[in-house]
Amino acid sequence: MQKIFDEVNSLDKRCYEEFGLSEDILMEHAALSMQLYIQENHSDKKTILIACGCGNNGADGIALARLLHKKFDVSLYFYSKAKSQMAILQEKRAKALDIPIIEEVIDSDIIVDCIFGTGLNKALDDDAVLLINELNSLDAIKIACDIPSGISFDGQVKSVAFDADVTITMGALKTSLFSDIAKDFVGEIKVANLGVQREIYETSTNKYLLEKKDLKLPNRKKHNSHKGSYGHLNVVAGCKKGAGIIAAKAAFGFGTGIVSVVCHENLDLPYHIMQTHFISKNCTAIAIGMGLGNYEIAEVQKILANDVKKIVDADLFYDELLLDVLDEDIVLTPHPKEFCSLLKLSNIADISVEQLQNNRIKYVEEFTSKYPKVVLLLKGTNVIISQGKNLYINTFGSAVLSKGGSGDVLSGLVGSLLAQGYEPLDAAISASLAHALAGANYKKNDFSLIPSDLIEEVRRL
Ligand SMILES: NC(=O)C1=CN([C@@H]2O[C@H](COP(=O)(O)OP(=O)(O)OC[C@H]3O[C@@H](n4cnc5c(N)ncnc54)[C@H](OP(=O)(O)O)[C@@H]3O)[C@@H](O)[C@H]2O)[C@@H](O)CC1
Ligand SMILES: Nc1ncnc2c1ncn2[C@@H]1O[C@H](COP(=O)(O)OP(=O)(O)O)[C@@H](O)[C@H]1O
Ligand SMILES: [K+]
Question: What is the structure's pLDDT at 444?
Answer without folding.
Answer: 94
